[in-house]
Hints:
Strand order of the largest sheet: 3-2-1-10
Mean pLDDT: 97
Low-confidence stretches: none
Largest sheet: 4 strands, parallel
Shape: globular
Amino acid sequence: MVLLSFDIEEFDMPLEYKGEIPFEKQISVSQTGLERILGLLKKHQVKATFFSTVVFAENSKYLIKRLLDDGHELASHTWFHSDFEEKHLKESKERLEELFSAKVTGLRMPRMMPVSKNAVEDAGYAYNSSINPTFLPGRYNNLKVSRTYFKEGKVTQIPASVSPNFRIPLFWLSFHNFPLSFYKKLASDTLKKDRYLNIYFHPWEFAEIKDEAFKLPGFTVKNSGKDMVESFDAFISWLKSKNYTFGTFQEFQKQIEL
Length: 258
């Protein structure tokens, strides 16, 4: 099963690089990208999971309702993208459920930040997808963590996919910077070994973010915007041509716990 997921959030990444972007622009960039993603998913008739911050959801209700109407899953990306307190785990889950009358069972922490396993369980989540089981200097050092899903208390941990050999991450940066043929090879190897693929992206990757004011490094904006739309379209077409199935995290969790 292919688990496509998108972290939908206020686009505040320029602030990490001392760039400038007003709040309204943070929201509008992600809204543009999300509209393009939903169009692609509808074109291919595949389902995905969307991890949303409360901030983005409150400012984009029409898009959240649209993705739910299209049969996608809504999960929590906590309250804010760049400010976190443990209480946000439960509060964000409850707020999203209140806003959209949807059952929120999953969590992904912003930037895959570490989080207390007990706090996640106490907040009522059934699964957590906040681990990138690889090594990236200055970001992740999770080589001792399981590559594949595992149970931790009552919560199912579903790490992002990495290749069986050398734990090469298949997350968004790899998709932008590897040749698509090599990325497909990694995805194929992972699906053959693990029988599922958990990859994540962001709406702003599908929007125009090559703005000098943002001061983003080249590796973060490479093949973004319309180029990303075309590459992602081709990638989904390739997956479908191989007869892989697509599903939400909720569907996947039901399947592995049968």
